[in-house]
Amino acid sequence: MKKFFEFMEKYFMPVAAKVGAQRHLVAIRDGFVAIMPLILAGSFAVLLNNTLLEWVPAFEFMRGINGNVWWGTLAIMTLVIVFSVGYSLAKGYDEDGLAAGLIAVAAFIAVTPQAHGDAGWGYIHHGFLNATGLFTGLLVSILATEIFVKLTKRRLVIKMPDSVPPAVGRAFAAVVPGIAAIYTLSIIGHLFAVIGDTSIYDFIFTTIQAPLQGFGQNVGSAMVLSMLMNLLWFFGLHGANILDPIMNSIYMPALEANAAAIQQGLAASYNITRVFFDAFVHLGGSGATLGLIAAIFWSSKKRQDYKTVAKLGLPNGIFQINEPIIFGIPIVLNPIFFIPFIITPGILTLIAYLATASGLIPPTYVAIPWTSPPGVGAFLATGGNVMAAVVALVNLAVSVLIYWPFVKIAEYYYDDEPEKSKI
After folding, report:
1. Choosing a second label site near 382 at 20 to 30 A (CA), which of 22, 254, 290, 376?
2. Using CA of residue 66, residue 31, residue 106, residue 140, what is the dihedral sign?
3. How far apart are CA 61 and CA 64, in angstroms?
4. Where exactly are the structural domains of the chain?
5. What pLDDT, on the 0 to 100 scale, is given for residue 372?
6. Low-confidence ranges of the chain (pLDDT < 70)
7. DSSP letters spanning 196-265
8. What is the pLDDT, as a whole number, of residue 116?
9. Would you report the helix, strand and coil content of the chain in percent, each value rounded to 5?
């Protein structure tokens, strides 16, 4: 075990730390965080249409209103993420985030197909603006912002006199970099259309997004990603933040597709979405550490230090916050809890996937706050399905059983060698 830790600290930790601090991944992560209120609003509208309005006919008048909310949120998710990522990336360079976000949106619209069916030129189908266009939007936003930032830093800007109001000065400073960014993307889009007889959207969706979404729906890959997040946490790195750009890029389109299908009265088709992990896997936080807290209360007799940390961490754990446990037990670099902390998310992912794929519970389609308590989150994420809440609670019980023998091992070491009570 010692050699394994040394190997990970020497080769894995530096790479993981660099990935977590990579400018573009940070911008994508922050971009998704910024639009979370919109995702929650759209999901709430879909949830109401398929629960309250179905149960209480008197609220039928709200169906159109909720449809408008969905149209203004989930249906244009890519459009707002393009702005948000462009803004965040430019701010990371200490440049004008507002200008970068607006230029990124313009560049994205410039490369988006403008005809659909018999509608003719000048019509953009919402399918290009919702999560199905996510990868195209992310790549265009990053490329447009990079061009804007690089030209701005090289002082290829229109410099206005100091007497001009700052807002006007910033607007003129963005003219040359903005024109260059939009024209560059427009030229690329035109070349795709002329030479390849396709669009940037179709090319990226076919070669990148569709294969990744297929990869994401494989239960094995979902198990690996959930365990990798905990591996990062074990070494003191914020696994959720580091993997968020990847998880959102792969699983957010699946969530939006499920929500759109339910909104249109169709069946949801993706078993694994972004909220699947919050509802069924991260019970008490990464590693399902609410199960560890329960195992400590259940079986720890002499580890008063564990009991104290568990009591302090319980209120936070109920709402999926587990830093007090991860750093208080601690789990970080603790060889006793390495195995359960890593394997528990994989096992819970498998159980929830089998329950979903078998039809026992419906797929998740409602974005929920990640702080939703176990059971409650699964109930809401599946549109009020009671069996989904039961599966989440079963997963919680499984996590308790996985952690229990390791809590006893920790107590055994404490009995034999009190000075190692923090192992």
Report:
1. 290
2. negative
3. 7
4. 22-216, 228-420
5. 92
6. 1-2, 4-5, 7-9, 11-13, 115-120, 163, 413-423
7. SSS-HHHHHIIIIIHHHHHHHTSHHHHHHHHHHHHHHHHTTS-HHHHHHHHHHHHHHHHHHHHHHHHHTT
8. 62
9. 75, 0, 25
Residue type, 391: V
How far is 21 from 328, CA to CA, in rounded Å? 25
Chain centroid to CA 366: 14
Rounded-to-integer distance, Cα 334 and Cα 289, Å = 14
Six token digits for residue 421: 């009570």
What is the number of residues in the chain?
A: 423
Question: Going by C-beta distance under 8 Å and a sequence separation of 6 or more, which residues neighbour residue 13?
Answer: 235, 237
pLDDT at 160: 74
Could you give the angle at which helices 97-111 and 77-92 cross, rounded to 10 degrees?
A: 140
CA distance linking residue 285 with residue 219, whole number of Å: 20
- Buried residues in 6-17 as b, exposed as e (16+ CB within 10 A): eeeeeeebeebe
Contact 328, 355 (CB under 8 A): no
